[in-house]
Amino acid sequence: MNRKVLTSIIILVIIVGVFAYLNAGDVEDRALSQKEAILFLNYQGEEVAEIDFDSIQELKEDQFQETLRSSDSPDQENTYTGVLLKDILAKYDIPVDGFSQVVTKAADGYTVALGQAEVLEDDNIYVVYMINGEYLASKSEGGSGPYQIVIRNDQFGQRWNKFLMELNVN
Fold first, then answer.
1. Helix/strand number for the chain, H first, E second
2. 3-169: which CATH architecture?
3. If we measure between CA atoms, which residue out of 145, 109, 102, 139 comes closest to residue 124?
4. Which region, left, alpha or beta, applies to residue 93 given φ > 0 means left and ψ of -120 to 50 means alpha?
5. How does DSSP classify residue 161?
6. What percent helix, strand, coil does the chain show, rounded to 5?
7. Longest dimension (CA), the chain
C-alpha cells in the first residue's frame, strides 16, 4: 500500500477517535434528556440548571393551534401545549439584556439559533410538551419529544426543533 494512503488512513482514524471521545459525554446527556425529560440550560458556557418536567409545569402553560408542514406528508393542524421560552429564561434569572441568542440543541444533534428579539417576542417561541392533548413521546418511541421548540412566526416550521435537550444562551 502506498505510504501516503496509509498515512491518510491513520490520520482519519485518529480524527474519528477524537470526535468520538469528545461526543461521548453527549451520549449520557441525550439518554438522560430523553428518558427523564430533562432540559439542560446553559448560560454563557456554564450549566445553570437541569430542568425537569415538574419545573416546566410551574410556568404559565399556553395552548395554541399551529400547522405542521412537512415535505413528505400533508399539512396537519395541531393543538400544542407548552410554555414560552422567554418564561423559562426568566425563571432561571437569565437577564433579557444579557444574551444575543439562544441555541437549541436536540438529542439527534440538530441545532437552531434564535435571536434575542424573536425569543423575547410575545406568543412566539414555545417549549412544547403536548400535541393534541397527548404528551410528546421520545424519539425511541416514535415521537418528537419529550420537548420540542415551536416557533409560531416561522411560516414553514423549518427551525422547529424536535427532541429538545439543551438550551445554550449566549
1. 4, 10
2. Alpha-Beta Complex (3.90)
3. 102
4. left
5. B
6. 30, 40, 30
7. 65
Q: Is the peptide bond before 146 cis (omega within 30 degrees of 0)?
A: yes
Of 110, 114, 86, 93, nearest to 102 (Cα)? 114
- CB contact at 8 A, 79 and 133: yes
Q: What angle do CA 108, 109, 111 make, to 5 degrees?
A: 125
> Which among 108, 125, 134, 131 has a CA at the least distance from the CA of 160?
125
Kindly give the pairing relationship between strand 164-169 and strand 62-70. unpaired
Name residues whose C-beta falls within 8 Å of residue 141's C-beta, 6 or more positions apart in sequence.
none
> Would strands 164-169 and 39-43 be described as parallel, antiparallel, or unpaired?
parallel
Terminal-to-terminal C-alpha distance of the chain: 48
> Around Cβ 103, how many Cβ atoms within 10 Å?
15
3-class SS at 119? helix
pLDDT, tens digit, for every residue of 23-71? 555 666 767 778 899 999 999 999 999 999 999 999 999 999 999 888 8
Cell of 137: 413521546
Amino acid at 97: D
Q: Where in the chain are the domains?
A: 3-169
Q: How far is CA 119 from the centre of its chain?
A: 14
What pTM does this model have?
0.84
**pLDDT-based confidence at 155, cuts 50/70/90?**
confident
